[in-house]
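Researcher: Go.
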Amino acid sequence: MSWAYAYAFRAGAGKERCDDVCICETLGDTLIAAVADGAGSAEQAHAGASLACEVFLQLGVQVFSGTVEASCLLEAIQARIPEGENDAYACTLVGAVADSRRAMILQIGDGAAVVSLRSPPSEYEVALWPEETEFLNHTFFATASDADQHLQLRRLDAPPYEVALFSDGLQLLILDPKAKVPHQPFFRTVFKPLKNEPGHDVKASWWLERQIGSEHVTKRTDDDTSIVLARRLS
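Model: Structure:
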């Protein structure tokens, strides 16, 4: 079994650099992907998001297999931040690991993961809904001292057919917060350009980049936007 994948990110309005970071790789038949969103108020937002993705890439499979506790992943992120500077590196994290038999979705903070558990025409569903907070535009960070209290983890007993990870810049555009469901036409559309060939689909990534930079998106959000798509191939 193998995976086809694509990803894209774009800086928000008036920004020179996107503080969202996304990664996607395959290790044999195992997919590992993550999206981290550096907090807008954090001085080292991009560095924090990069660090979170890097550590997930290193430890995500071990959390998936059960040889490492999920809280150890958070500890590893925080251990690499200079003492007293956790707020400067604040970021959220959404990650996924899947092989030929099962899958894991991990999340802390906003953003989300959407999965399709069977080949079309099955529906897409939100794997983990972002934890609600008391105040609007407030979220939880993987770099915070109480991060383990807000860590969400879901294990699936079968691999998803398709999986999408994205930051909160797209969240309100493609999820219905009242019904807590994804916008089905959006996901059917964005997965169409992804070829049924293993590895990184560069053309699909370029297409995704154009879509998140389109007027339809930029008129509705001025935040950084990022998304990872992956499809399981038989």
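Model: The chain has a mean pLDDT of 95.
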